[in-house]
Amino acid sequence: MNTNILFATETGLSQEVAETIASYLVACGLRKCCVRSMDTVSIDQWELLSPLVVVCSTTGQGDPPATMRASWEHLKMSDCPDLPNLQFAVFGLGDSTYPKYNYMGKMLHNRLRQLGGVSLVHRGLGDEQDAGGVWEGLEAFLKSLVVALRLSNEQFTSTALAPPVLKFRSIIEDPSSFRAPFIPYPIKTTTFTIASRKQLTSSDHFQNICHIEFERFGFDTSTVVTLHSAEDDTGISFAPAAFLSSKINLVELLVRFFDLESCASRSLFHCLKAFCNDDEERERLEELASTSVQTDYLAYCYREKRNALEVLSEFPHCAIPFDYFLSQLKPMRPRMYSLSSSPSADKLNCAITVAHLQFSTPYGRARSGLCSRWLCAAAAGDKFEGFVSQSPSRLSLEKAQPLILVGPGTGIAPMRSIIREAAALHWKAPIYLFVGCRAPGRDYLYESEWIELQKEIKLTVVTAFSRFEGKKTYVQHRIVESGTAEALASLIADGGSILICGNSKQMPRDVERAFTSVVQHFICGGSESDAVRYVNECKRDGRYITDTWS
Ligand SMILES: Cc1cc2nc3c(=O)[nH]c(=O)nc-3n(C[C@H](O)[C@H](O)[C@H](O)COP(=O)(O)OP(=O)(O)OC[C@H]3O[C@@H](n4cnc5c(N)ncnc54)[C@H](O)[C@@H]3O)c2cc1C
Ligand SMILES: Cc1cc2nc3c(=O)[nH]c(=O)nc-3n(C[C@H](O)[C@H](O)[C@H](O)COP(=O)(O)O)c2cc1C
After folding, report:
1. Which GO terms describe its molecular function (predicted)?
2. Per CATH, is 2-157 categorized as 3.40.50.360?
């Protein structure tokens, strides 16, 4: 039996999940499983791909991701052809801190059923907020899918492997045959040259946060710079990200196109098992590859952010051929950084504000983010390859409109852009800015700039320090404080807009609760249900926007 998988992704994770599903199904006895990007297959071909597994994420505020936009436009049309011969299964990727959680996965599932398609299994949902990320939700989905496709989980212990999708020798001999494994890259990327980098945090602060300026070539306020890959110390000039135009050596190929520091995929364990000549190691690999003992993989690999090279060194009895190993590496994914400069005020350079991601795993291993590390160590003249894209969550800015900006941590970046733009354009409308950090003098970003800007526009800055003078104050606490709450309610009632940016963990929910409380007490006469409805209406009207990242 054959089956097909279509993935729809913005930042690459759905592709990785799709490939994991494919290798799992092949290991369970499926003869062939083809993985393709959704928009490369027209809707009238979908029935031919049946049984079809669709893996799709949600972006923006419940919007379809980059590789699904054309398909979704077609599927939504009233004259979209029926699909009675389509057997399908949908797995959605999302983040439950967003108001429209897994919206596209749910919508797609419903729409395919409306068109007469037959759902093989209940739709699966993966949530970034789960301790094991989206992988946690995948387990139950895979189990029911295997049953629906009449495969056998028991066969999983077999060593059936799909052939490697990448062949190093062919890439070396014919570079033009190579396509970057991550599909949604624009073919044309741009080289960004660093003009300057300045550390914003004090030297005794635990985290390095930098203001980085690039030589500028015209962006608008809500533009997000997507950086993909860095030029390394030896000064190699990068070719366009999507393909190769000249010969490449092994190191270049690995560093430019693969994320060697990301956590190893589960399918790597399955692949290693097939080439392992030691019983104990094989048994352990089986546990790590299996979906029925998912917690093993999560604890050993996902939470430890253990990468493919580390895994290889811990299983020395696996003689995996290089093409199989290469095909199991995770492709380099784009990292997005909001612009913190304004087009009108910063004519020479554009800027981003980057926090170097550093954390300790549950077993105390120090880990560091790849792109933020490169950026926070970069020097003037260093080059980064990337492309410019519009932020999916655009706040439409009008001069007369009051603004409430909540930007703890690096969430300050888009706020700085908006405020500098407002000052350059001499806005009259009031702006409230909520800044959240640990302590003044340590990580209070752009403090002196706010003082200057307050002389030019009606800017009120409210600070929330979480490690200062023995108190833990967060932005949500400051929003509901007496005096501030009344002022915010009046701005909201006057048609003001709210923008919340920064960490996606707990903050957006707490802030929404705080705003709902403000609306309840000062706009809706104490009614909680009216306040919830009011905030939801603001969201619908594009006046309450959350743009957060993990
Ligand atoms: C729209 C948007 C705008 C953004 N704007 C900014 C911005 O202005 N400034 C900014 O600094 N960042 C911003 N980001 C985040 C940025 O894109 C990167 O995600 C961030 O810099 C980390 O990338 P990295 O390459 O350093 O880390 P990576 O090498 O990609 O590592 C990150 C991965 O590490 C893992 N991880 C992280 N923390 C832990 C932990 N505690 N335990 C276990 N695993 C963990 C997670 O799997 C995570 O995906 C934005 C993101 C989006 C989507
Ligand atoms: C800018 C942005 C907007 C997002 N919007 C939503 C959303 O509205 N609903 C949701 O459930 N998840 C949302 N997410 C979370 C993604 O769907 C989730 O991170 C997913 O794993 C990404 O998969 P991908 O890499 O295949 O695109 C958003 C993520 C980002 C970065």
Report:
1. flavin adenine dinucleotide binding; FMN binding; oxidoreductase activity
2. yes
CATH number of the domain located at residue range(s) 190-245+333-390 in this protein: 2.40.30.10
**From CA 128, how far away is CA 302, in angstroms rounded?**
12
**CA dist., res. 91 & res. 54, Å (int):** 6
Tell me how far apart the alpha carbons of residues 414 and 339 are, in angstroms, rounded to a whole number: 6
Nearest CA, atom 48, ligand 1: 550
Which ipTM was obtained for this model? 0.94
The model's pLDDT over 345-360, given as tens digits with 9 standing for 90+, comes to: 888 888 899 999 999 9
Domain boundaries, the chain: 2-157, 190-245+333-390, 266-328, 403-549
Pocket of ligand 2 (CB under 6 A): 9-14, 57-62, 65, 93-95, 98, 100-103, 128, 134, 392, 547, 549
Q: How far is the CA of 151 from the centre of ligand 2 (A)?
A: 31
Q: What are 267-299's pLDDT values in tens digits?
A: 899 899 999 999 999 999 988 887 665 678 888
Chain centroid to CA 190? 21
Ligand 1 pocket, CB under 6 A: 224, 261, 303, 305, 335-338, 352-355, 357, 359, 369-373, 410, 413, 547, 549
